[in-house]
Amino acid sequence: MSRRYVKQMKLKKGISLHELVEQYRQSGVLGAGRVARATHIVRNIFATPETVVFLAMAGPMVPGGLRDIIAQLIKTNHIHAIVTSGANIVHDVLEAIGGHHVMGDLHANDRELAEQQLGRAGDVYVETEGFTKFEDEIRSILSRIPEEKRKEGVSPSELIATIGEQVTDPESIVHQAYLKKVPIFCPGILDSMLGLHIALFSQLQPMKLNGLKDMEILYDLVHDAKRVSAIILGGGLPKHFTLGANILRGGLDSAIQITTAREEDGSLSGAKLQEGISWGKVKAEAEFETVIGDATILFPLIIGAVLEDVEAH
Predict the structure, then answer these.
(1) Coil, helix or strand at residue 271
(2) Total structural domains in the chain?
(3) Are 165 and 178 in contact (CB under 8 A)?
(4) pLDDT tens digit string along 203-254?
């Protein structure tokens, strides 16, 4: 058996992300090796023509600082469909209309935060007064949708596109997705502040959501694609929705997943991508890698290294 020996990493002043990840590759072990393999896969995903690229994201990715990176990937045509939680849509729109996320303390006194009108997500705070402005904005957007269309039923992706049209912040995920015609699927939209305000609006005016319309859009997207790849941040419903849609075509052609969840309890969030082969969600010959870690740390590192490499060539 031929042996490939671990090459010890060396740091130097001015080292680039690409050079650092290349050292990860040469070490080839533990988390560093997995990050390097994931970077290689993302590089191939972006470089392969006629590939539909999904970004699935659960957890507080917008409050965690990934908003501008994701918007940039949409703007540069690297992402073609997004599946996410309602919360990430809410936090993106909050930023777009002048709301703020505040750096906080994981061990803060939550009673005191409530008195200061701050909501906490880990060590990130959200100014709750921004939700009042958010409510006004969403009510205004919903009221401008023709009543006949609201009665007929609007799909979540159509509604998010409408919000993206009205929200003009160039660094907004929903705005860039609207401009690039990138559908944003949100299967759990009702489980969010956005869903709450849609429900409240529906008590006063006609308003129906039609999730089945999104299934048609989604299935057409994967059915007609020559290749489908996915970048999955976190797990939960966005991950499952992305993987499940690709059963119709025999599974994903390539994918990476970044998650902090573990696989021992059988949860979907912690399941490694190779488990998807047994369900037909990932092709047996697919190129894939699961990286255990915090997406707010690893996603910028991987994307930065890939984009540096692309620009260098």
Answers:
(1) coil
(2) 1
(3) yes
(4) 999 999 999 999 999 999 998 899 999 999 999 999 999 999 999 899 999 9
Whether residue 7 lies inside any domain: the answer is no
Query: How many angstroms separate the Cα of 30 from the Cα of each of 22, 35, 37, 203, 292?
Result: 14, 9, 11, 54, 10
2 falls within a domain: no
234 and 267 Cβ atoms separated by less than 8 Å: no
**What's the order of all strands across the beta sheet hosting 227-233?**
184-185, 81-84, 51-57, 227-233, 252-259, 282-292
Cα separation values, 24 from 33, 72, 84, 145, Å: 5, 26, 30, 51
d(CA 53, CA 240): 16
Find, among 99, 186, 178, the residue nearest to 134 by Cα: 99
**Is residue 257 a contact partner of residue 267, using CB atoms and an 8 Å limit?**
no
The catalytic residue positions are: 281
CATH number for the domain harbouring residue 232: 3.40.910.10
Taking only the tens place, the pLDDT of each residue in 284-313 is 999 999 999 999 999 999 999 999 876 655
Assign residue 58 a region: left if phi > 0, alpha if psi is -120 to 50, beta otherwise?
A: beta
**pLDDT tens digit sequence for 30-44:** 888 899 999 999 999
Which residue do the tokens 């130097």 mark?
Answer: 12
Q: b/e for 117-134, b at 16 or more Cβ within 10 A?
A: ebbbeeebbbbeebbeeb
Q: Is 113 inside a domain boundary?
A: yes
Mean pLDDT, residues 109-114 taken together: 94
124 inside domain: yes
Q: Give one DSSP letter per residue of 59-119, joined into a string.
A: SSTTTTT-HHHHHHHHHTT---EEEE-HHHHHHHHHHHTT--EEE--TT--HHHHHHTTEE
Domain range holding 288?
A: 17-312
Q: Is residue 62 exposed (0-12), middle (13-18) or buried (19+ Cβ within 10 Å)? A: buried
